[in-house]
Design brief:
Radius of gyration: 32 Å
Number of domains: 2
Largest sheet: none
Length: 485
């Protein structure tokens, strides 16, 4: 995504791509030329042939067409917002599941039978590895939505490389018995192109990465791969056709009649709303591993029933979310609806200058241009955000979401799970402020019956009764301080 004000804040040609002007300017120019032709031919001093027609249908058809375009844009924006909500669910479920595994699965497993032989270091490695798999899930969903098959990516393979690869559960085995996770339909490997960020900066792992550019793959494990890893981000290159979309039609004609062009693999276009179904469902296979781990923990008594239920619910949320994302990605608006709407708009804009010339004369030219810019722009915006998971500048920043998950999982695993008594009774803790500002260490030195309100050592009811009076008094003080005037 780009900044909220891409036009007037650090303007660049890359940010110009975030607008739809480069997609509609050819059409706007065409209808402006039509309006110019109508004005010149209808001018008594030049052509002398009045091409004006009755504008009785102008208001009715314009209103109906505007409502249909508004519905088209609203439905596309709803899909956009649904995609954002689904990614919020992924972040929330990942965070909750990681907390449950890190805090509630014990590392000290004395009295757990065979599990008692494992050291605390081994148990910590076990939990941290499973939490890394939770981070791999969001990355796998990102590639899944972008139609990028397999696991051989710089940001995904290091998190999954240790998983079993063959039917016997090992890392080596006979050819043809690879598990689905490691099956990749892309058998032809071309040279890996250097990926670019949405503003055109180099984001590869090479040594010539620009100074100051974020390179989150450096935080991942350094794992050797038997295959060349694909970039974490590999958007299609910008071409001449991205700036003049009209010529895409001629390119399609040339490719249709050229046998050589048909023999070449088709490159992914920049603005593609539908990437088709991805057969290698990596997110599903990751949840299978995580589900197996939670089942193993429950079987061996490492999870309390309530925590096991919560972990299962969060795993279910992850799968429900990716199913909803798949629905958004793989359900484009029907072609008949889009084609009919666009043709209707073209006909309306073509006949618009004929209907307004009699009233506006030469002002019909800028009027037609503005109407074309307005209506075609909203129609193109609807198509632009219909599938918000690709590399367009207006799409959701999936890489940012994955990095947010990565950062939060590392934050969770940095928590040491200490005994609360180790940090509660210190001089830095004043639990009963503002009424009683004595530290927890001072309060704990006496017994329950010795507690009294500050400056009330001779209170008639020391102990718990006095403590309750302190809490009520604190509430009154806070309520008076925070009450608005």
């Amino acid at each position: 995504m780009v900044s909220s004000n891409p036009l007037f804040r650090k303007w660049s040609i890359k940010k110009f791509q975030a607008t739809v002007i480069n997609d509609i300017w050819v059409e706007v120019a065409f209808f402006s030329l039509v309006a110019t032709m109508v004005c010149l031919v209808s001018d008594p001093k030049i052509g002398g042939h009045n091409l004006g027609i009755n504008n009785g249908l102008l208001t009715v058809l314009g209103t109906v067409l505007g409502l249909v375009i508004s519905f088209r844009t609203s439905s596309a924006y709803e899909r956009y917002q649904d995609g954002r909500k689904m990614w919020t669910n992924i972040i929330t479920a990942s965070r909750n599941l990681a907390q449950m595994l890190w805090i509630h699965v014990p590392v000290d497993r004395k009295g757990k039978g065979e599990l008692a032989n494992a050291t605390m270091l081994q148990n910590t490695i076990e939990k941290k590895t499973m939490i890394n798999l939770i981070g791999a899930y969001s990355v796998a969903v990102k590639h899944f939505l972008r139609g990028e098959r397999g696991v051989y990516y710089e940001d995904l393979y290091p998190l999954l490389s240790f998983l079993p690869r063959f039917a016997d559960g090992g890392v080596s085995g006979p050819k043809g018995e690879e598990l689905p996770l490691w099956h990749d339909d892309d058998e032809v490997h071309h040279g890996i192109e250097v990926p670019v960020t949405e503003l055109g900066r180099n984001s590869s792992n090479s040594s010539n990465t620009e100074k100051g550019v974020m390179d989150p793959e450096k935080a991942l494990p350094n794992v050797a791969s038997e295959r060349t890893l694909k970039p974490a981000r590999n958007p299609p290159e910008e071409t001449f056709y991205d700036y003049i979309p009209l010529f895409r039609f001629f390119r399609w004609i040339v490719r249709s009649i050229s046998k050589r062009a048909r023999a070449r693999p088709e490159r992914k276009q920049k603005r593609k709303a539908y990437d088709g179904y991805v057969e290698s469902h990596i997110p599903l296979e990751i949840t299978l591993v995580l589900s197996n781990y939670t089942a193993w923990c429950m079987k061996n008594g490492l999870m309390q029933p309530a925590i096991a239920t919560g972990a299962t619910n969060n795993l279910t949320m992850l799968m429900d979310t990716v199913s909803n994302l798949e629905r958004i990605c793989n359900t484009p608006l029907p072609f008949a609806y889009q084609a009919h709407l666009r043709m209707s708009l073209w006909l309306y804009l073509f006949f618009l200058p004929f209907q307004i010339y009699a009233a506006f004369k030469y002002i019909a030219i800028p009027g037609t241009a503005f109407a074309s810019f307005l209506l075609l722009g909203f129609l193109e915006i609807g198509q632009e955000i219909e599938n918000p998971f690709n590399y367009d500048l207006n799409d959701l920043d999936l890489d940012y979401f994955c990095h947010a998950v990565q950062r939060e999982l590392h934050l969770i695993t940095a928590y040491p799970n200490p005994d609360p008594r180790a940090f509660l009774f210190t001089e830095l803790n004043q639990p009963f402020a503002p009424v009683d500002r004595r530290t927890a260490k001072q309060l704990a030195e006496g017994g329950d019956n010795d507690y009294h309100l500050p400056n009330e050592k001779d209170a008639a009811q020391p102990g718990i009764a006095s403590l309750r009076r302190t809490l009520v008094k604190s509430w009154k003080v806070v309520d008076s301080i925070t009450k608005p005037n």
